[in-house]
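re the bet — no i am not wrong, look at it urself. input seq straight from the record:
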Amino acid sequence: MEDQEIIIQGITLAGKPFRPSDWVDRMCSTFASFGVDKQLRYSPYLKPKLVNNVRSLSVDMKLKQVNPEGFEQLIQFAKENQLSIINPAGEAVTIDS
């Protein structure tokens, strides 16, 4: 895959909003860790994003090399919940797993 980023949108392939509405925050928290200052730090590979007024999760493709199991978990989550996966240009992408 040439894209450096994929975006998992909080909208199903059927066009319905995904619930729970805080799923992006939950995913970011799952990959977060505590810094030396005891502050929770989100992974640099996941970022909440608003795309076309839809809460979405931006995934840096470097995550696939750094944490292949975590990347696979995100893709499986998106597939199981029939969430749209797009590139930054808004084009649908398919991730082989």
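see?? The CA atoms of residues 12 and 83 lie 4 Å apart. told u. also Residues 68-80 form the longest helix (13 residues). so pay up
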